[in-house]
Amino acid sequence: METTTPVKKNSSIIPLVTMTLLFFMWGFITCMNDILIPHLKVQFNLNFQQSMLVQFAFFGAYFIGSLIYFLISYFNGDPVNKVGYKKGIIAGVLLSAVGCCLFYPAATLSIYGVFLAALFVLGLGFTILQITANAYVTLLGPEESASSRLNLTQAFNSFGTTIAPILGGHLIFTLFLEKNGAASADSTRIPYLIFAGILVVLALIISRVKLPSFSSEETVERGLGALKFPQLKLGIFGIFCYVGAEVGIGSLLIAFMEQPDVTNLTEVVSKNYLALYWGGAMIGRFLGAISLSELPQTKKFIYMVLAAAAVYLLVFSIVDLTFAQTSFFIVFIVLNIVAFVIGKSAPARTLVIFAAVNIALLLVSIFSKGSMALYPILGIGLFNSIMFSNIYTLSISGLGKYVSQGSSLLVMAILGGALLPLVQGSIADSLGIQTSFILPALCYLYILIFGLYCAKRGHGAEGGAVRTNH
């Protein structure tokens, strides 16, 4: 049990705002990988599988980092419980800044392996944030509203992923190009030095802000007792599939849009559509935060419509596209709201509906050409929105004293973002990009089955937040 007294609403506002800024930068830098992949593919003359080593290095660090954390916790006790969430978060931010700084020698030496090493260090820093920041947000208020609070901060994480393709694409594809159109070393060197500076400033802000401290009296359970719970075992592979599908789609979107059978767009234009994909996740997470709140059903629907309209206008103002080019997205937003209403705030039921929609959208994209191939795949971001939080809460529901151990195992499953894009890249090389999207479709099929399993056994079958029995 947490030993601290509950955080008062007013006292949690500043910490929550601080965490929101952190989640924004975290999302921004993570999404820069989708810009790096086509850039490095051209710079080092890579095939799709080789270019996917970007995600392999970055998300592989999540697995290695969380495994190390798990082993330290097992033998010496929970490190965050010893040093505190605040110091843990600062350590993660500073390590991420070091990773960004390593892009300087990577770009100067023009060695792909050094880029991958920089991404690995950056991923290690984000692993610490994954372990500390997510848990910290859930503690900043009542347990009943934890899912809503986490969806809200993750929505700002998605705001970062929405802006990254626009701003990051401008920095890498436009601002620092040589006069002959070739990319210069500065196209990655300077942007990542800027990101490092922002992260250091953010670490200083966090160090100055008075954050509530939390500690736990729970003893670390030896062995792997958490794996006796079937929902956790199935949920680990669910996280693996979800992260692998989301990352794989985002990583290949720009290359997909360059295909003559699709839209034959240039990188400068396609980065705007990539922003729509990630912007959809932002819209969906804001809607998820409202859907999981304790508001009456009628008010929920009204607020969801207003929030969707406001965030769509925000995304529209960011991307360099006309209303005619983005109006198709309104159809997917309406479909997303309808799916939330049908889901009735029940995590398992909503997960099943969203997974089914994503499978349908992918199949349309795979077997279509032109706009009919592009539009459905851009709508997938909307239905990815609540998948991580829903799979996570369904997986640890009812674990009791094994919650911490289960959480670390779920973070390790982010390894899917390292392995599955690599497999998808290999399929793209041999069978084509469009055909490669069958892999994420299979991932969503598994997530659908997981949701049905949880609904059948009563895990998250009712509306409201999932209880984790802390």
From TrEMBL:
Gene3D superfamilies (alphabetical): MFS general substrate transporter like domains (1.20.1250.20)
GO cellular component terms attached to this protein's record: plasma membrane
Main location: membrane
Residue intervals passing through the bilayer: 12-36, 56-76, 88-106, 112-137, 158-177, 189-211, 232-255, 301-319, 325-343, 350-367, 373-394, 406-427, 433-455
Membrane topology of this protein: Multi-pass membrane protein
Single GO molecular function: transmembrane transporter activity
Pfam assignment, any one: MFS_1
Locations listed in the record: Cell inner membrane
Cross-referenced CDD domains: MFS_FucP_like (cd17394)
Domain Major facilitator superfamily (MFS) profile residues, every copy: 15-459
InterPro entries linked to this entry: MFS (IPR011701), MFS_dom (IPR020846), MFS_trans_sf (IPR036259), MFS_TsgA-like (IPR050375)
Alphabetized UniProt keyword annotations: Cell membrane, Membrane, Transmembrane, Transmembrane helix
Listed name of the protein: Fucose permease
Organism: Pedobacter cryoconitis
